[in-house]
Amino acid sequence: MVTDPGLAAEEIAAGGVAEDQHPSLGGDNPAPAGRWGHRHLLDVDVLSAEELDLVMRTAEGMAEVLARPIPKVPALRGWGLTNLFYEASTRTRVSFEVAAKNLSADVVNVTASASSVTKGESLVDTIRTIEALGARILVIRHAVSGALYLAAQTFGGSVVNAGDGWHAHPTQALLDLYTMRSRLGGSVAGRKIVILGDVLHSRVARSNLWSLTAAGADVWVCGPATLLRGFEAWAAAGVGGSRRFTVTSDVGAALRDADVVMALRIQRERMASGLLPSLREYGARFGLTRERLDAAKPGALVMHPGPMNEGVEIAPDVAAGSQSVITDQVANGVAVRMAVLYLLAGARE
Amino acid sequence: MTIDVAARSSVGARLADLEISRAWLVDPASGREGPGELVVEDGVLVAVTWLEGAEADGIDASGVVVAPGFIDLHAHLREPGNEDAETVATGLAAAAHGGFTTVCAMPNTTPALDEPSVLARVREAAAASGSPVKLLAYGAVSAGRAGEQLAALGELADAGVVGFSDDGAPVRSATLFRNALAYAGMLGLPIVDHPEDPTLTEGAEANDGLIATVLGLRGWPAAAETGSVARDLAILDDVLRDVPGARLHLTHLSTAASLDLVRGAKAAGLPVTCDVTPHHLALTEEWLAGARRWSWEALGDDGAARDPWRDGVIAAVPFDPAVRVNPPLRSAVDAGACLAALADGTADAIATDHAPHTEVDKAVEFGQAASGISGIETAIGVILAAVDASRLPLARAIEALTTGPARVLGERSPGGPQPRGLVEGQPADLVVFDRSAMWRVTAGALASKGKNSPLLGRDLAARVLLTVAGGRIAYEAPDA
Prior knowledge:
The structure holds two protein chains of two kinds.
Chain A: H1 9-13, H2 49-66, E1 80-85, H3 91-102, E2 106-111, H4 115-118, H5 123-132, E3 137-142, H6 147-154, E4 158-164, H7 170-183, E5 192-196, H8 203-214, E6 218-222, H9 231-237, E7 246-248, H10 251-255, E8 260-263, H11 269-272, H12 279-286, H13 290-293, E9 301-303, H14 316-319, H15 326-348
Parallel strand pairs in A: 1-2, 1-3, 3-4, 5-6, 5-8, 6-7, 8-9
Helix pairs in contact in A: 2-15, 3-15, 5-6, 7-8, 7-15
Chain B: E1 2-5, E2 17-27, E3 32-41, E4 44-50, E5 64-68, E6 70-75, H1 88-97, E7 100-105, H2 116-129, E8 134-137, H3 153-159, H4 174-186, E9 191-193, E10 206-207, H5 210-215, E11 219-220, H6 222-240, E12 248-250, H7 256-267, E13 272-276, H8 278-282, H9 308-311, H10 332-344, E14 349-350, H11 359-362, H12 379-388, H13 394-399, H14 403-409, E15 430-434, E16 439-440, E17 459-460, E18 463-469, E19 472-476
Parallel strand pairs in B: 2-5, 6-7, 7-8, 9-12, 10-11, 12-13, 13-14
Antiparallel strand pairs in B: 1-2, 2-3, 3-4, 5-15, 15-18, 16-17, 18-19
Helix pairs in contact in B: 1-2, 4-6, 6-7, 7-10
């Protein structure tokens, strides 16, 4: 996909580039943990198991930074970062903003309503404008699958996907992996991980399928048949053409002995389009309740990418229960996004 | 082989003198192909000589080929109303560059070609262009292509349209479709239907298969086409009781199942014809993911589509708006079915569905990009790639570009239902292309205003050297 061999962060660390032109890696900054060659982060599909590991280890370094009294390093000092969000978002946008500010980047937030597209300003024009205003990293969320690839072809700097249509949400998948690894002894290999809910419309599910199968997990996706359309065929072909996963509408079979259960948000428009009879029926058949969770392994992790419909896809007592790592996901999101921005900036210089 | 044009002349000029010696002639009208020579004098094909024995030594089908001029049953010339995307003049120039000497323009212009004055305007533009390429036109089925009332079918027939189509806005009402088939049948003209059940394709972006699932694109099910074809055939069968002259032509069929339905209907004797496009037979849904191999390279030995990720063939940036088209690029299995349908005669013709668009309409997010491929100039190169890969016999490919579409047009085809072919004493109407010469598809190399080709940057074989329409020069390669 769109990649740029660039330079490894460690090569930059070895010196030779003036400090004001690159993330200064000495002093308070964590040491880079390996080679990173991507100019953009558009999806996790291009990341190998080794590259996933690099992001994880870099994020661990960022978590140490976050634990300091003053959780701030100068890595991206002088770098302009623009958050361009065509869809509403609170946690992802704020998470990127906090991550960028912790790295000392200069952050600009642009909320573009989808209607501005129909008013005549194209995505390409908007991106050219933002680039002319000095941004070197562009974080975009867009409602249309694949829009980020157009952005990456237009923008001279690095593009980070903060969610595009049903296609991909790579930093969410990375923070999910980070959260699971940190709670499961450093690896998800061989662990049974269940993604439960509206898989069809979920960019979180798709990106997690790439990263979790690459990391060796036993991935299951579960939901009503109308929200799993096409996934049996993908499972049979395998992610990346080889990495199998399991598809089922049988919640009991999916949750049995699971190590992790990730519930996905159900949107009300699914009823209007005839995919589901009612939210009530969804909750009764597919909601993550205490009783259902008891079929999973003792202490199985409960996750949700947010925002939640408590009482629909997840029961309030489960969301707030001792097995829930949902707030961990939010906190880890900052460390993981710091790692991504840091690695991208390193590859750019 | 030598081509000897007496004097270089400009497009539209009568071809004074032309001698082509030692080429491979393909003449579907007579069913003959082989080594030969031909002579044109004052625009008239005066001699066609088939070489035999020692004279034919060293001439084969892999070099220069001469065939009757191609007929395109399906092109969008955009004039009037969207001249930024194409005009009649640029569209005809593009057709000539692709070897086409007859083009059937679709009526989805602005205003729609639903009454004779719009046809007159299009014909004026064709005359003003100076191009000798024959412009034919379909009239709309419904007034304003709105699918509510019949357009001025009788007046349009009198004015010379070759059929009726609401292409791009498939006739949703089965009753209106039934009435249109009957009325057009009374007039002796076909209904050209774009089969699509719009209730299954609302917001759809990509063939509903593995690629759409992985990329998170809204699925466009094959059933939307298959169901619509089944409806059309059932209605045709019904209409024939009262109107034996009713005829149905299904355009740009793209699924194995809908081609099977047509195969069955033809076997049952229904008066139905159909065409397939170069892109649906050679390109597949995996191009959306960034793969760039031909459909036959994407088909496994087991007859199933191969996985582009497993094969490691993702070569281009995914979500290229140039591959957004209606109907969508399908699976390698469906593309193989299009080739098989051509080979066994189920598909009567290859039509380009040339759909030029402006950059403003195409250089946008995939799901918001206009549907369509600018394809009239790359058609022969794409088809010859299939021929080169032994997926289609050369003679059958040429037939599907000449006699096949002529039969679909029937009496209103330029030479009648049997096209002129390479016949002595007739005005020359032919294309000369070199299968051994590659050309690179670039924006600058395309005569069309529509640069929306997924083949940009690719080298294609079968470079067109000369196109002669009605005895006049339509296209001549700069260095031919």
